[in-house]
Amino acid sequence: xxxxxxxxxxxxxxxxxxRWRGDAEEEIGDANEEVRDAEEEIGDANEKVGNAEEEIGDTNEEVRDxxxxxxxxxxxVIETNEEDEDSGRETTTTEEVGGQTVGSTKVDIxxxxxxxxx
Length: 118
What we know:
Layout: H1 4-87, E1 93-97, E2 100-104, H2 106-117
Antiparallel strand pairs: 1-2
Helix pairs in contact: 1-2
């Protein structure tokens, strides 16, 4: 009987080690699942960043287009002012608006050019 006890103790230790191993493998599986979930979240976040970068690029392109329009309009205003000065036309006038006499300046010429170009 004495020989049976060490065998039984060995089996108990082996069973205990097996349980530990099973528990450890389950924990590893859970950790791997958490890693996969985190990787998926990172992928989603990267996609959002990519979309935001694309929107920023589109907005920057729109800004460049508006800046070009402003430069073109400024160029037209300068040309018109130079033409008016060369022709001797008065670039400051007065007109009646709402019962008041107001001055009209080169800014009004720019407004006219903008209206004509749109």
